[in-house]
Amino acid sequence: MSLNLRRSSIPAKMKEEKKVKKFGTMAGVFTPTFLTILGVIMFIRHPWVVGNAGVLGSILIVLVSVAITLSTALSLSSITTNIRIGSGGAFSLISQSLGLEIGGAIGIPFYFSQAIAVAMYIFGFREGLQSILPEFSPLILDIVVFALVLTIAFISTSFAFKIQYVIMAIIILSLASIIGGLFVNELNYDIQWFGNYPGSPEDDFNGTSFWLVFAVFFPAVTGVMAGANMSGDLKNPRKNIPNGTLSAVIITALVYIGLSFVAGFLATPSELVENYSVFIDKAFFSPIVLAGLLGATLSSALGSFVGAPRILLALGEKRILPKSRFLAKTNKKGEPFNAMLVTSVVVILGLSFRSLNTVAPLITMFFMITYAMVNVVALIEQSLALPSFRPTLKIPLIVPILGTFGSLTVMFIINAAVALTSLVLIVVFYFYLAKKRLKSEVGDSRSGLFTALAGWSTKKTNELSPTREVRSWRPDLLIPVTAPKEVRACFKLIEDIVAPKGSVKFLAVKSMDTDYKDRLINFLPEVARRLKRRSIATRYTFVDGQDFAETMNISMQALNTAFFRPNTIFIPVDGNAHVHESYEKVIGLAEKNHYGVMLYIPFENVGLSLEKDITVWVKDLKSDWKTNFDLNNNDLSILISLLLLKNWKGNLHVKVVKNELGIMSEEDVPVFRNLVRLPAAATVEVYPYKSERDLIKSHRTDLNIMPLLEVDKIEELQKIVKLSRTSAIFCMDTNNVNALV
Question: What is the pLDDT of residues 575-617, one digit of tens each?
Fold first, then answer.
């Protein structure tokens, strides 16, 4: 029975999947891109551009504009042929490369731009209708047009695309009618190749400039993402998006260049700047051009309304927005029904403004930022040269560079204040999403980017200085672990020593009879996660070895070949006396391998007490310490005390021994403070060596930090801890640490 049920359910599921309509290059990419680019500006603003800039000037404007959008289209196409692009178009592409945080930061405003753009196109459609139906209220016309767009889109995306075929036919006929105007009008043979930029009727022809005219024309070509937004509904995105987008961009560019010549012959420069309807008035058949204008705005509205919900759907699928599960649902036809409902509300809000003159520049900026980021992704992917980047469409590196620079430049040319506002909003969205700690199932290229940067930095560092500079020292700890209790007892201390810029490498060593993997395999990942929450770089590994000291020796020798090698071994000492001999061997081996040592010995069960007072004991200073700047095995002690002081926000006490040679006296304290750069609140006391035992016994603190020598026995160090009744860290320097630099 169960077998029959399983068999019967499979065809039903397959039938359900077949109901989801997928589109090819023509319907899914070329048509929406073609219609979005050949929009309102072509009909009522392109003649004005020719009148201001002249025929060749307008062609230059077209070429500069197309150079930016074509580079974006090429970058988009190149990346698309390399990855399995999901739903959401540019959002999916950016997320797969730079992570969900950046993808979402771009995707959220890009969605709102697409949605509110529907309202803008409806206003354009209404203005065309008012020339035919002037007696109707603009609000009623807006509602009727929106209802028409809504009805077509909710019937099905397939139906919307079929309507776009009709609109495309009308636009092609309108282009033919505009060109036909050359045969029914008296032509202007005194063509102005480079214009005088007189301006527009709205500003009483007070003059304009090349870049202002460019800013008016540029939105005409910002439709290169229209097809990419349908990425989740395409049969073969790797093939459909490049073929459809690039062919649409090239064909529409040729159309605009051709219309520059047509406008130059149809009317004089003064007519072109004074009359926005030159193409309609002087067409072979004016009604079809007016129909083309209406069709262009309707198709743009349809394209945006169909594309915007798919971006919202993708944002919902990645759990980027509140109520993401609701937004990510589709109906039986595979349509993002819930996302379309939300988009309808956003469009209604856009229509309620009645005039989007203040919002329109912001919408354009979000488009431009998206284009810039697409180019940045292509630039990064190409620059990393990872084996995984094998696009079937390869482009020169100059293409994404031109696209990135051009997109950002155009933003500030159009409106610098709005451009800055847009970038600030993107940053706000990014930090909002960063706090959500989003996780992508497919991963992204960021690790490759930072690995490449680290590799480049490593090469440069080695070129500048083959050996590590003492000025670049920071606590990079190597911590041998044989049981979880060793880390638990001093975890907070480790965290406070290395935070925020240090690093930790745990070396789980099999030693004696410790069944280390069973105990540590679940413990160390959790420790690493806790340290990473404080942005502390943390790694761990498991090493088999019968002899603890020899295993540590081999590990240190192996790590010496690494660029990001640890510089200090941190050893927590407990009451297990039979391992002390191994620890003492490790201290000697650490010095030979040029590692510093920090030996932590807690006082019984007290640990670190209040974590407030730190006392560092400075001993065995050389006679020339003031001139040679050498503190002789006290550097690590001082630096660790300063790091702990910063994280504990406590008090620092420095005890400097005064020996018989008079190397350190009360008069030397200001010099010592100045060279070490001690905090003003820190106290410095010089004491005779003979009274050290009594001073250690009587002085009350939360942690003592003292110098360590290779010959020191752990048993003797434990006696010091018991005498002081205070936990202590015993430090041994290396030649790459200096507290005076």
Answer: 777 888 899 999 999 989 999 999 999 988 667 778 899 999 9
Give the total number of structural domains in the chain: 3
Asked whether 615 and 703 are in contact (CB, 8 A), the reply is: yes
Q: Do residues 641 and 568 share a domain?
A: no
Does the residue 202 lie in any domain?
A: yes
Q: What tokens were used for 496?
A: 């406070």
CA 106 to CA 76: how far, in whole Å?
A: 15
Most confident of 27-31, 303-307, 726-730: 726-730
Respond yes or no on whether the N-terminal peptide bond of residue 707 is cis (omega within 30° of 0).
Answer: no
Inside any domain, residue 4: no
Spatial distance between the Cα atoms of 138 and 127, rounded to a whole number of angstroms: 8
Question: Within 539-579, where are the H helices?
Answer: 548-559
478 - beta bridge partners? 505, 569
Whether 450 shows a pLDDT value over 70: the answer reads no
User: Does the structure show a pLDDT above 50 at 6?
Assistant: no
pTM score: 0.67
Residue 654 β-bridge partners: 616, 684
pLDDT at 70 over 70: yes
For residues 208 and 211, give the distance between their C-alpha atoms in angstroms, rounded to a whole number. 8
What does the pLDDT read at residue 370? 84
Cβ atoms within 10 Å of 632's Cβ, excluding its own: 14
Domain span at residue 510 reads: 467-601
Alpha-carbon gap, residue 100 to 232, rounded angstroms: 17
Q: Residue 491 belongs to a domain with what CATH number?
A: 3.40.50.620
Residue whose C-alpha is closest to residue 586's, from 520, 509, 640: 509
595 plus 617 within the same structural domain = no
Mark which of 567, 601, 635 sits at the end of a domain: 601
In a domain, 572, yes or no: yes
Q: Of 541, 568, 601, which one is at a domain's C-terminal end? A: 601
- pLDDT of the residue at 705: 95
SS3 84: coil
Contact 552, 593 (CB under 8 A): no
Q: CA-CA distance, 540 to 507, in Å (whole number)?
A: 6
Same domain, 611 and 705: yes
- Contact (CB, 8 A) for 339 and 312: yes
131 and 224, same domain (yes or no): yes
Alpha carbon distance 490, 573 (integer Å): 10
Q: Is the pLDDT of residue 738 over 70?
A: yes
- Please give the angle made by the CA atoms of 618, 624 and 626, to the nearest 5 degrees: 70
In terms of domains, do 555 and 695 share one? no
Residue 328 DSSP SS3: coil
